Amino acid sequence: MTRIFRSPSAYVQGRHVIDNIGEHAQTDGSRAVIIADPAVRGIVGDSIRSGLEATGLTTDFVDFGGTCTDSGIDRAAEEAEGADLVVGAGGGRTLDTAKAVAARHDTRMVTVPTIASTDAPTSSLSVVYTEEGEFEELRFHGVHPDLVLVDTAVIAAAPIRFFRSGIADAIATRFEAETAIEAGAENVFGGQSTRAARAIARECFRTVEAHGESALAAVERDAVTKNVESVVEAATLLSGIGFESGGLAAAHAVHDGLTRIEPTHDATHGEKVNIGTLTQLVLEGRDIEEFHDIVDLSLDLNLSVTLAQIGLTDPSDEQLRTIAEAACQPQETIHNEPFDVSPEAVREALVTADELARQRRNTREPG
Ligand SMILES: NC(=O)c1ccc[n+]([C@@H]2O[C@H](COP(=O)([O-])OP(=O)(O)OC[C@H]3O[C@@H](n4cnc5c(N)ncnc54)[C@H](O)[C@@H]3O)[C@@H](O)[C@H]2O)c1
Ligand SMILES: [Zn+2]
C-alpha cells in the first residue's frame, strides 16, 4: 500500500510566457536544442530561440515531423548529442519524441505545448507508435519535464479542433482515475493513488464541464479569457497529473485499440479518447442518466460521440474484433477495471455506446 504522486518540477502558464523561457528554464548549461516541426518552428521558433539566447544559451533546431517512433527518436537523439537542455515545442507527438531524447541524454527538459490537445506536456512517458502509425507502447522515462511552459496566446490562436481534443482527453482523466482508484489498481508509477491525485482528476473534469463552452467560444476568436486559462490548465496540468498519479482504465485502452484501424488515423487522440470514455461508461454498466450527461456535455462542446465521427462509418466485424482485442492486450490499462474484461465485452460496449450516443444526438436535434 505505497502511495506515489509525481509531477513536473515547474509549470508556468500565461500569455507570452515563451518570451521569458530562458529565465523560467533555470539551466546552468550552455547549449539548448529545440525540437519542433517546421510549422511550429514558424510560429514560436524565433521567440524560443531569443528567449533562451537572452540567458546566454546557444541554440540549435532539430526538425521533427511525424509520429513518435523509435526511428524518429533515434534521429532526433543523434542531432541533440551534447545538449544541456532539450526543449520540445508542438503537439503531443513532438513532445513525446523530445521527452524520449532528453531521457536518453539525461538532460534538463522543457516542454512547450503549442496546442492544448493532450496531457502529454506534463507526463513522464512517451507514447511510441510503429512506423505504420499503430500504438506500440507507453515508454516510461522515470523523469518528468523540469518545466512545462504554456503560452496561452499561442494556444488560443491554434486551430480549435486541438483545443476540443484536449478537453476530451481531460474528461477521460476523471473517469479513468476514479475507476482505477476505486478498484485499488496501481497508478502509472506502480503505486496506490493519493487523495491529491483524486482531487486533481475531479477538479480537471469540473473545470472543463463548467468552463469548456465559454473557453471554446473565446478560442473561436483567438481570445485568451480567464476561462481559457482555466481550461488550458485542466487539459494540460490537471489532466496530466490526474492520469499519471490517479491511474488509467478502459477509455485509453479503447483509444489504443482504435489506433489499430487505419480509418481512425485522421482522428485526433482526444477524438478517439472520447469514444473510449463513452465505451468505458457502458462497460461499467453506469446509469443511463450519467451516460447521457457525458454525451450531452460532449455535444455541447462539439466532441466526437460516434464511431462515424472518427472515421468508422460502417465498421466491419473484423475491424471491431481488432479494436477490442488490442484494447484487451495484457499490458493494457483496461485491466484496471474492477472486473474481468474480455474482447467480446469491449466490442459490445463499443457498439452500444455508439448506438446510444447516436440516439441521444437525434433527440437533441431540432425538429
Ligand atoms: N505522453 C503522454 O502522456 C501522452 C498523453 C496523451 C497523448 N499523447 C500522444 O500525443 C499524440 C497526439 O498529440 P496531438 O493531438 O497534439 O497531435 P500532434 O502532435 O500530431 O499535433 C498535431 C498538429 O498540430 C500542429 N500544431 C502544433 N501547434 C500548432 C499551432 N500553434 N498552430 C497550428 N498548428 C499547430 C502540428 O504541426 C501537428 O501537425 C499521440 O501520439 C498521443 O498518443 C501522449
Ligand atoms: Zn490521453
From TrEMBL:
Signal peptide: none annotated. Glycerol binds at residues 119, 169, 252, 269. Residues 8-152 form the Alcohol dehydrogenase iron-type/glycerol dehydrogenase GldA domain. Binds 1 zinc ion per subunit. The keyword Metal-binding applies. GO terms for molecular function: metal ion binding; oxidoreductase activity, acting on CH-OH group of donors. PANTHER family: GLYCEROL DEHYDROGENASE (PTHR43616), GLYCEROL DEHYDROGENASE 1 (PTHR43616:SF5). NCBIfam families: PRK09423.1. This is Glycerol dehydrogenase. It comes from Halobellus ruber. The lineage of its organism: Archaea, Methanobacteriati, Methanobacteriota, Stenosarchaea group, Halobacteria.
